[in-house]
Amino acid sequence: GNSVTQMEGPVTLSEEAFLTINCTYTATGYPSLFWYVQYPGEGLQLLLKATKADDKGSNKGFEATYRKETTSFHLEKGSVQVSDSAVYFCARNTGGFKTIFGAGTRLFVKA
Amino acid sequence: EAGVTQFPSHSVIEKGQTVTLRCDPISGHDNLYWYRRVMGKEIKFLLHFVKESKQDESGMPNNRFLAERTGGTYSTLKVQPAELEDSGVYFCASSLAGTQETQYFGPGTRLLVL
Hints:
Shape of chain A: globular
Number of strands of chain B: 11
Oligomer: heterodimer
Order of helices and strands of chain B: EEEEEEEEEEE
Number of helices of chain B: 0
Largest sheet of chain B: 7 strands, mixed
């Protein structure tokens, strides 16, 4: 089927720890891939995206590389901050206007 | 520039009642979308407007849900009558014309049906 699967949370880290949130997708063709973030009390924000294989999206210290061979788009950050505490959603488009989301991963960063 | 706004931010209603959610997209965005996140699960697509026309309503769960976008500006999503399983967060998003354009999301409306 066509879906997005991401690691279950919550993920709890100490400040300055390394973050990885795994995401894999199934799709026909080559969709664009996204990471969205939802900070407490706010809407979804696009964090980064990649539109073709081997592209790396990056923003605010976060990175994710479009891996066609493993159908993955794992989110990483080398040193998390308390302000990174949020829910992170992996997503892909359908070639049209729909976006398909994963279930979200809540991240808690402790000072 | 104002982002996507949604009203109300929260709504608590009883089963069988009616609720209407509103979304104001970013000015100039022809595309408007409704999504829903139920019980902490994935965010699911409900429908897509281009201006005032429904382009895709394949995600609408049943005929208790009615979306409108009269005049091609703001949109409403009415649930009538509401059921317990309708509880969740309803997100609206908008984008410029074209499938590759970024979708900008609103803060969501948290609906609780008791």
